[in-house]
Amino acid sequence: MNRILKILVLILIPTTLWGQLTPVTDHYILNPLSINPAYAGGRGALNVASFFRRQWVGIPGSPQTMTLAVDAPVLSSKLGLGLMIVSDKMGVSKETQIATTYAYRIHMKQGGFLSFGLGAGLLTTNTAWSDLIVLDPEDDYYLIDTRMFAVPDFSFGTYYTSGDFFLGFSIPRLLSYRFDFDKNKYSLMFKPEDYSYMLNTGYLVTLSEKVKMLPSALLTLSAGNKLMYDINVHFSLYDRLWTGLSYKNDRSVVALLQFSVNNQLRIGYTYDFDFGKIGRYSNGSHEVMLRYVFRYQVDVANPLIF
């Protein structure tokens, strides 16, 4: 059984159909640039965040993701620029994404701001097929030499905020690619049915001078019309400590803890409890976060509220 599980984990990697799956950090609610380019510059200052995620600990070849996100307003509060670097490793495959993001904010007459964002970058993948554990070691498909492929990557998003309410919609990857084993290369495909559509929303509720509550949700419609959702409730104590829980319909619960050392530096940790079949063989998933917000004089109305 253990051998079969290893084979499944190593084979089920995003290399045959590239572009459907987008690594999502558990800290996305507090770093929304990871899922939507329209958030770039939304904090009103230079913002640098880094993440490390170890998924399904205890299973060989399980995913590991490292993320660096940088964004800031430029020229005026209407414009925002960002940079995302994501390294995702799973089994014998390693995928790296480098993308720049641009956001433009529009002041709405009825109040609030509407932001549109675009992302453009490069995706690279490096797969060592010969390292796979297969039933037939002589299978030509798995004797292909390790090679690196690079393809363009684009994303789109929009974001609305008014007071303590926010609503965002995004398509993290506008292009998808299918690997052709016969030609040993990726083929570009324009198939909206292969997109992942993300909708996230939330409202910050002030319970007292010391306590705030942020209920939120993330809906993801992925290829094959598969609907995934996260239901989140986070609490802020003294604007210093964030804690909360998330429920995912893939049968997992996420516990989050973040602490603001000061008004600029924040550290965080999450742990995923998996109640599905994989949870029987793994020790959960761990993620750590470090964020620093540089202060300089650029005023932004309706900045990010979390």
Plain-language structure description:
The chain contains 1 helix and 18 strands. It is globular, with a radius of gyration of 20 Å. By secondary structure, it is mainly beta. Helix content is 3%, strand content 54%. It has a single domain, classed as Beta Barrel (Porin), CATH 2.40.160.40. The longest helix is centred in the first third of the chain and has 10 residues, at 2-11.
Structural features:
Porin, mainly beta, 18 strands, 306 residues
SSE layout:
Elements: H1 2-11, E1 17-18, E2 47-54, E3 64-74, E4 79-90, E5 93-107, E6 113-127, E7 147-162, E8 165-171, E9 176-180, E10 185-189, E11 197-203, E12 205-206, E13 211-222, E14 226-237, E15 241-248, E16 252-260, E17 265-274, E18 285-293
Antiparallel strand pairs: 1-9, 2-3, 2-18, 3-4, 4-5, 5-6, 6-7, 7-8, 8-11, 9-10, 11-13, 12-13, 13-14, 14-15, 15-16, 16-17, 17-18
Q: How many strand segments?
A: 18
Strand content: over 45%
CATH superfamily: monomeric porin ompg
Helix and strand element order: HEEEEEEEEEEEEEEEEEE
Q: What is the 3D form?
A: globular
Number of helices: 1
* pLDDT averaged residue by residue: 83
The CATH class turns out to be Mainly Beta
Helicity level, as a percent range? under 10%
CATH architecture: Beta Barrel
Largest β-sheet summary: 14 strands, antiparallel, barrel
Low-confidence stretches: 1-20
* Termini gap: 44 Å
Structural category: mainly beta
Short structural summary:
The chain is mainly β and 306 residues long. It contains one helix and 18 strands.
